Amino acid sequence: MGAAASPEAELGPVRPAAGRAFRRWTMAGAFLAPTIVLLVAIAGFPLAYNLYNSFLHLVLTEPGTERFVGLANYRQLVASGDFLQPFIRTSFFTLVSVALEFVAGLGLALIMHRRFWGRGLVRAAVLVPWAVPTVVSGMLWKNMFDPGSGFVDWGLGALHLPGATTAWLNGVWTSWTVILVADAWKNTPFLALILLAGLQVIPDDLYEQARIDGAGVLRRFRHVTLPMLKPAVLVALIFRTLSAFLIFDVIYVITGGGPGSATETLSYVNWRAFLVETNFGYGGAISVALTLIALLIALVYMRVLRLET
Amino acid sequence: MRVSAWRRLLGEGSFSLVVMVVVSIAVFPFYWILTTSLKTDHELSLGTHGLWPAAWTLQSYVTLLAQYNFLIPLANSALVAAGTTLVSLVAGLLTAYGLVRVVPRARVAVLGFILATAFFPVIAMVGPLFFVYRDLQLLNNYLALIVTYLIYALPITVWMLVSILGQIPKDMEEAGMVDGATTFQVLWRILLPLALPGVFTAAILSFILSWNDFIFALSFMTDPARYTAPLAIVNLGQSQYQVFYNIIDAGVVITTIPIVVLVLIAQRRIIAGLSAGSLKG
């Protein structure tokens, strides 16, 4: 780094333009290299390596059997239902959780946008669930829904409501309910904060004008708030869609993919292929598929945002 | 007049009610965790009987610290998160300076690449990096996690610092340059102090995001002495016959406290940072 510093000091106005440009780019290299090298190493390289491995039979517990198998891993992916079922499950979860969290997040953002006594405290209270580790929120809700030492069943019983003896993690839909609650509790604040930032840049004049034109609360919301909020909505939705699609921690902690394999999502299946079955060929193929899906979502995001300077 | 005053009061009242419900939903689970962690094993085995423990005890904290040595995973987490934060700040500051001052023309391309990595599915990194770390004998080594966690920390750090450095007028550094300071002296003595609020926010976000990881720790750390706090929590209090939620929850409480403190100290900065990071296209 020190080497890059000294040329800049000598860089006088009399130097020829070409040498100057050269020095400028070498210096830029020194500044940009650490980040680019690191990110290529931890994200770019795995992508290439997964692609390569996905054409191999590569199982760590079967040493010496490593060989090129062409598209066999991808065929297994399509044929076995080992991918299709988790894919449908994951998509369904993504759809439901993002829709639910978006509506709740928008409500929360509208609440926090108002000026009221104790708003700072409310914001802090809402921010904490976002900031805790996903494992913590998973454990916390697993405990809340525990039939023995939990709160939910006891609460339902105390209010004489049905379901007071539910063993939540024994059923498929009840398991998804617990996962959904844990996920929504942690991620709704994030959506709310992005949407709140969007609300705060809407100029007051617009509301004033709409009011003068005789628009009521609902019409102001529909014709002023929503259109102006669009950029924030898109950012929030796409961020959340992607992270919901890749859900892993909550599944691992709360259900471990069970009952049976009913809550195994794509990331979970992928992780199992890598570290339980040590099948890095097949795992690589799943990773490639997941990366393509993520790429698709990222492309949509960049397109929508139209990266300006 | 009186009718509208009533209506307003009613409106305010229902608004306050909604606010209280929201805050309860956010906070109540923490209350439940805290009280469960203060229950005795015996009371826990009897099932829930009320909203607070019949007898309060710190026994599960003692068990957690003495028997499960929970301070070790906490220290591991802190070490790794701090390491990632430091690397991320240094690399991020250099990159941000490079993009804002040296080659602004590369800004769109480089930021686009960095944003793309932020969208990269972390599970797809697990397999290949496991191979590499195994071959480099870095499994169960802090370095593996410090480097890997940069995928969480570096993109948001660069984005935030670019937006902060972009707001600092060029004259400040030019004055320094005239005085004969080198680029790095200018960066260190003039820009860094001006960008400090942004650096601080980036540091907090990097720390929180690294502290919260589970999947990489689960995949690369198999030695319980090297577990991070989230990984240790998952392996806590499981016996064949009963799940000791009081011990698990003690771990949850201890792991959550540093995060709560950070959030309370830096609430405004975190919110500003998150929204800047996501809305500045």
Please describe what this structure looks like.
- The complex is a heterodimer of chains A (309) and B (281).
- Chain A is mostly helical.
- Chain A folds into two domains: 2-43, no CATH class; 72-305, MetI-like (MetI-like fold), CATH 1.10.3720.
- Chain A is 73% helix and 1% strand.
- Chain A has helices spanning 2-10, 17-53, 72-79, 84-113, 119-131, 134-144, 152-158, 172-200, 204-212, 217-245, 249-254, 266-276, 280-305, and strands spanning 56-57, 67-68.
- Chain A has a two-stranded antiparallel ribbon.
- In chain A, helix 2 packs across helix 13, helix 4 (84-113) packs across helix 8 (172-200) and helix 10 packs antiparallel against helix 13 (280-305).
- The longest helix of chain A has 37 residues, at 17-53.
- With 281 residues, chain B is mostly helical.
- Chain B folds into two domains: 2-60, no CATH class; 63-279, MetI-like (MetI-like fold, Orthogonal Bundle).
- Helix content of chain B is 76%, strand content 0%.
- Chain B has 13 helices and no strands.
- Chain B has helices at 2-37, 41-45, 59-67, 71-102, 107-118, 123-135, 142-148, 150-165, 171-178, 183-211, 215-220, 229-234, 245-279.
- In chain B, helix 4 (71-102) runs parallel beside helix 8.
- Chain B is globular, with a radius of gyration of 24 Å.
- The N and C termini of chain B lie far apart (48 Å).
- The model of chain B has no long low-confidence stretch (mean pLDDT 88).
Short characterization:
Chain A has 309 residues and is mainly α. In chain A, 73% of the residues lie in helices and 1% in strands. Chain A has a two-stranded antiparallel sheet with strand order 1-2.
